[in-house]
Amino acid sequence: MAQLTEFRREIDSIHEKAIRAQREAGHAKYLETALSHSKQQAKAAKSLAHKPLEAEIDKLSLDKDISGNLVNVNATNVVELLLSNDPPIDSIGLYVEDCIRSARGEYVASLGNATDGFQSDILTFEQVLVILKQLKKACKSVDCGLGVLYQRVTEDEKEAFVKIIIRRLPTSAELFQEVRLAVCGNVDAGKSTLLGILSRGGLDDGRGKMRVNLFRHKHEIESGRTSSVGLEIMGFDHEGNEVQSATQKHGWDEICSRSSKIVSFIDLAGHERYLKTTIFGMTGTQPDYATLIVGANAGLIGMSKEHLAISLALDVPVFICVTKIDMAPPNVLEQTLKQLTKILKSPGCRKTPVFIRSKEEAAELSSTFVRDRVAPIFLISSVTGSGIPHLKTFLNVIPPASAGPDLIEKPLEFMINDVYSVPYAGTVVSGIVNTGSIRLNDTVMVGPDSLGNFITTSVKSMQRKRSNVNIAEAGQSVSLALKRVRRTAVRKGQVVIAKTEPPPKASWRFVGNILILYHSTTIKPSYQAMAHIGSIRQTVKVVGLNNDNNLLRTGDRASVTFEFVKNPEYIKEGMQLLFREGRTKGLGVIAQVVD
């Protein structure tokens, strides 16, 4: 894994600038800056369980005139304006809207001795109530909602600190935010059970009750093991509350209609036999984050280390969930945590493990753990429910990796990761919009086929999370129903792109800068392996090696020319490459596409 880290440093220049900035920022002071203020306030504070904050706000009566005159509102004077006798609600609403826009859909802020978008000195509990009452009116004026994540108030109520989240109201399935989360780990670690609790509600009975509803095949139910890529969702409304019914399960379309934020879980297989499927799930679905599920009774064994290495190789931020803490003896749990801490601190990971034991820590770390190279660790029991509320708070606040305006303005590029034949709808493809945007009835091109050609078609219907939409933009996952296209003419790994003249070219060969993580003997020309490039999953053959010995061993780095064995593919420079064959594993980046 140390070789993996060294190689990733060398290819950083080819990756996006955002990755480099993310790493450079990682050498800043880690968690202390983010949590120091909260810890200082907590010394003489306690939670007002007997005084729910929302109830206190509703009781508060404000006999103040609300001015409609627009004034200049900024981070330094917004709190003062909210406390004034004549608060400019419209102007404050516009300021809130700018904050949400700059934060790409949701804005997390602090009230009380804060230094962010609502700067202020120490506030009393009564002042915080007044601010929240007026701020809710300002949010309502711009179709936004405000929720309280946590609060700390001293016994005399002279000092108060509140963490809030502001989101847009759910108006359509086109606008909700989406966070894609890959769930990986060794077999029998409790991945599907945990997802069943998060997506369906309730607790497990210790015998797999919650995992059954997530399985897609009969043999999965019989064996209790996931063998395919499963998908589940969890919704949060504009106030940060979980969208879930205590009596019945909502459909995806209903959850999306009531949610401002959707967490999409990608349930991956843990058995070594299904590693090919797991790697495809990590590369094809383009997760924003990955959570590694570790059984407290077993530790980091089997495929857990493999999945962790894959996540690091793909630059996917990782956090850890240690499950089954209710059945693990204390000495076994302590040994598991020591092993996990040691691996996360190793040169191959270079992460700082932090155990999450409260909602406050979960809310603070959710937006900073990537920048500060922190690995949050949750201790969870799916039977007793211990640690589940902390994990839900973390998922509620974790920022979505929305695409920037520069990607949306580029030409359409949609990579297919699954194909269906739906009655009365025809051929349906699902995937991620990498760049650009796509609208209903747009004329597009699909390909390449076995000869490298693209076919012209149009989009007759679109859905996001089973809800009909008219437009999808870069960064969103969507399903498209294509007009007059046979199911056999479309496959995983193809792309849907904007119609161009002349049509784009598919490539048989490409040059990749690669690192061999493991190989038992030597790699020479004509060697074949399974390559994963985005949603492309195809055998490639080594046709050229750019080194003196004309062979590769474990730990070697080289520029290698590959050739697809079955079909040409639509690839571009800078795409990440993973290849494997048996226990042989390598990774790299495409440096050149050969026409």
Automatic annotation (TrEMBL):
Show the GO MF annotations: GTP binding; GTPase activity; translation elongation factor activity
Pfam families (UniProt xref): GTP_EFTU, GTP_EFTU_D2
The record's keywords, sorted A to Z, are:
GTP-binding, Nucleotide-binding
* SUPFAM superfamilies to which the protein is assigned, alphabetical: EF-Tu/eEF-1alpha/eIF2-gamma C-terminal domain, P-loop containing nucleoside triphosphate hydrolases, Translation proteins
Q: Where is the Tr-type G domain?
A: 176-406
Which protein family is it in?
A: Belongs to the TRAFAC class translation factor GTPase superfamily. Classic translation factor GTPase family. EF-Tu/EF-1A subfamily.
This protein is called GTP-binding protein 1
Source organism: Wallemia mellicola (strain ATCC MYA-4683 / CBS 633.66)
Taxonomy of origin reads: Eukaryota, Fungi, Dikarya, Basidiomycota, Wallemiomycotina
